[in-house]
Amino acid sequence: xxxxxxxxxxxxxxxxxxxxxxxxxxxxxxxxAVWKAVEQLRRGGAAIEARxxxxxxxxxxxxxxxxxxxxxxxxxxxxxxVTGQVDSTNSECRRLAEQGAPDGTVVIADSQTAGRGxxxxxxxxxxxxxxxxxxxxxxxxxxxxxxxxxxxxxxxVCRAIERCGGASPRIKWPNDLVLSGKKVCGILTEMTLEGExxxxxxxxxxxxxxxxxxxxxxxxxxxxxAISLDMAQEERVGRAALAAALLEELDLLRREILxxxxxxxxxxxxxxxxxxxxxxILRNGRTLRADALAVDGQFGLTVRFQDGTVETLRTxxxxxxxVNGYV
Length: 327
Ligand code: BTN
Prior knowledge:
CATH architecture of the largest domain: 2-Layer Sandwich
Number of strands: 14
CATH topology of the largest domain: BirA Bifunctional Protein, domain 2
CATH class of the largest domain: Alpha Beta
Number of helices: 9
Number of domains: 3
Strand order of the largest sheet: 3-4-5-9-8-7-6
Radius of gyration: 22 Å
Shape: globular
Bound molecules: biotin
CATH superfamily of the largest domain: Bira Bifunctional Protein, Domain 2
Oligomer: single chain
Structural class: alpha+beta
Distance between the termini: 51 Å
């Protein structure tokens, strides 16, 4: 049957585009029959991409397991756990921290049943769609020195996406990654302090990147605000490759954050999306209009309110968005 022939031909060159013409010639069926077979295969759930001028290709399986992630890493990593499902990679990392897990422990999951976002929100994490990754660090420093951490992790994620041939995300203050005006990644940092000294006992950085979703895969309230890498770009970025790139960028950040933060701050400023734009600030139940002016040395957002007052906002109970929506 044409359907099986077409599938076998595409599977033999998985990931490569084969034109309708070449398939038709090699399989001895008409181009219309090739097209019909592809349509039938897609209806049956086969992941076949059709692109004008290029033809058809079987999209490579987007494996997210220990071996595949390890294969992309340039150096072997101990304490890496890749799992199918977990409540939340941040919660799992925190549990491991309580049991004494070492600095650099990483938890990656294909899906989360109780993914957590900032301000007590949930983070939609369905199977096969995203990269959910948390890392445990045990830096030997005072909490203030890590104030820029979440913002700088945003820079590391931007770099990882770019390294994998992805688009160039911008950053919506303080730490959402944005593509085409919509959120592609969120970051949640949780710190545990030592009671007596106030120094950092552990910090868990959790990163959630939307990869494979189509508009319909997002919960209704996120449609129009959220985007995935697949929606934003033609090239598909595999989750395992992305995880490995991210671990390497995070490792670099870990080594530089305490002694070379300026370079990262400079890059953060370059990627900051709202500078020079009007924004709305939601604080204590009130919405105020302002112009975003700059990001200061401590990653505060300096804004000018309509009455001329200039203030630098720190994260916390403040939410900043564009005047016409998310950015
Ligand atoms: C936000 O934008 O509100 C932050 C979202 C953070 C989501 C990530 S997914 C991996 C890690 N595990 C969680 O439960 N949350 C973070």
